[in-house]
Input
Amino acid sequence: MDQSVQFPRSRWLVLLACVIGCISTQVTNLCMAPVLPQIADSLHINVGSATNWVMTPYLLSGCVVMLLIAGVVVDRYGVLVSLILGGLFAAGPALLMPWIGHSLSAIFWARVAEGASQGFIFAAVTPIVAMWFPNHQKGLALGMMSGSVGAGSAIGVEAGPRVFAMVQNAIARHSLGGELAQAHGVWQTMSAWLSLVAGLGVVIAVVLALMPKPQLPAQAEAAPGASQGALFKQALVSPMTLVGIVLTFAACYGMQCLYNLTPTFLAAGKPLGVGYSAMISAHLMLGVTLLGGVGGPILCGQLLDKVFKGNAKTVFLIGFALMCVFVYALKFPAITGQVALLEAVLIVSGLGVQLVLPTIYYFVAKAYPPQLAGKMSGIWVGIGTFGGVLGVYIAGVTVKSHNSYNITLTLQALTALIGLVLVFALAAAQKPAPSAKVAGAGR
Output
């Protein structure tokens, strides 16, 4: 089919819009993590409470939006509408943070709104892979979008403290911008500057939406008497869907804990954390987010397409095994006390996460009919992402009560082990996707 069907050339621009959108979600989320101790001080709360006021709402709203709204939006109105909505939710509250970021309740609702961005943007990933790209380019497209999540994470944990420091320097110089920043707050001003990343994604998506609408090729032949509603109900109640949701729950638990909690764990003073500065923490997290987060999805695509020939089970197993072993290693001072060794452990941990997560999207895109891609990825990831919310929430509670990250690191490793076991159940439950027909949809 790939040889005879023409896919629109604008698919690369759609891919670019999604890449920037994925970057913006992670920048908006993770720019806060390395400076969370400073945010806690400015709000006169402890770091554990700050985690649940600043980080948890972002993750929670993303789960709800992706589960209940985003999949329907992307399947009905297309990927560009979903990308525009995601960018607006990311940019708007971040831009307004200097004016609203001094009240805990206002911060909470701003982060809830920002979190909705990831629901809309991530819901577009699977339909783009399934419907906009031929089979021989699906792995490439998936790798670029998944890699952009890692790139956004790297930018977020690096740009957060850098922009924070720039704002502090402007205040120290008594410049006009510094005086404004002092009046509105340092981290709040940081948030406003970083909203420009999401704004760029919105501009590109709006321009694409105003261009002539391309006709996407038919993706599959219709099964006799099959309707989209019947196919959706069949997919929804299948054992494969249930197992996949629980597996995604475990994967998201590990991802969000690694990305959201590790920067603070590294930057917090002893005995709570490792005791590095916010800047050193950001540099250490570059390995997780840049080498693991960007290189991991690229490696994942190569493993799926060329090494294991579409066998997702093996890639899942490798990823969960790396997550389990190397996250647990972070409990030991012999690891965390040596910067080079710590960096290596963090990189492999991030690589494990980024082998699992792109494979989830790949599995959904291949296992279900293309016109169900948005809904089913929304259900898998929407429900599964509650694992990330639970992980961050539990960490906030245990860190506050025990003044230590040991419990949450143990739980991360245990959850990865559960995910590894679930891979065998998913492989046993997998059945060929029912065939269906869709033409010109998914824009």
